[in-house]
Amino acid sequence: MTGGAPLRSEWQTLPVLLDRRDDWAALAARALAPNVFYTPAVAAAASALHGRDVGAVVVRDAAGRLVGLFPLRRSRTRWGVLPALVGWTHPFAPLGTPLIDPADPIAVVGAALEHLRDTHPGTPLLLPYCPADGPVAAAIDAAVARLGARQRSFAAHARAELRRPSAPGAPPAIVDARAKEHGRQRRRLAEQGELCFDLVRGAGARGSLADFFALEAQGWKGRAGTAAASRPAEQALMTEAVAGLAAGADSDAMVARLMLAGRPVAAGVVLISGREAWYWKIAYDETLKKHSPGVLLTLDLSAALLADPAIDAVDSCAIENHPMIDRLWFARRPLADRLIAFAPASFSVAGRLERLRRDLITIAKQARDRLRRR
Length: 374
Fold this sequence. Notes:
This protein is α+β, with helices and mostly antiparallel strands.
């Protein structure tokens, strides 16, 4: 309950949600913890490629205002023998933080979980890439405890984040242990022509995406056939997401470029929702890799983002222990996959199946890596 008023929850499909975007966009802008991948702009862009069977538990207050949105996919194949409701993440959306109004987050989470308990009493809920600490994590923990549900975390990890130091004497936001080497690389590049950093945001970002697509296609992803330019649906997703965010009142998109003699040698895509940003994608000219153009771009971009008073934090969207970004950004964003269930039997079975599933994936990856080394 928010301010003592009753909350009501219901399931809505993604197409229905996208027909009613104003409330959704307003909630995304004021959410307790922003999630750009759950904005209507990015969700609409991803719907064709990754939106099958996706809907959301929506929570409204007594006045009908949207106060909670929990995007989920109904899955009958994750474990084979037990259906599941899984938070909507995919290769272009590595964050599963639900959108929650800050006024009474425990009540909002509780209303959503009660809806799932009543409509899917034996179906476990799995929330991938969910915050492991902070206000959203605290609200989920409190709501789970109040309702007598059970939960378990998988794949707890922390990925690099750019955040201003919280107080004088705190560790710096950027720690560049190879600063002298990067300075030397920058000077060597500059010997080949004028070297400059360029940041395009708003309406111009869509056009600048062409430089990112071209650089990605020229590199190893192009050779492997996995570059966005080789996959029209993925290229359309990225283009529509950037254009949609740039057109929003409380969101934006940027394309950062490192230009050498007038041509891009590195490009990165940044998405913005509320007061947070996401370093979504990066590509660079691999013929210049000895000069580390991707690192130089990231250093310039980091300085620009830290200087922007409208941005509080930047999620790297990277894997844990990433060989580049983890060496530059000091802060970390703790995440985990949360399994929640009300029925003890289904919770126990789902926990064992999820553990087995992850173990099998690890074994398959190890076997693949061994074959590649031969």
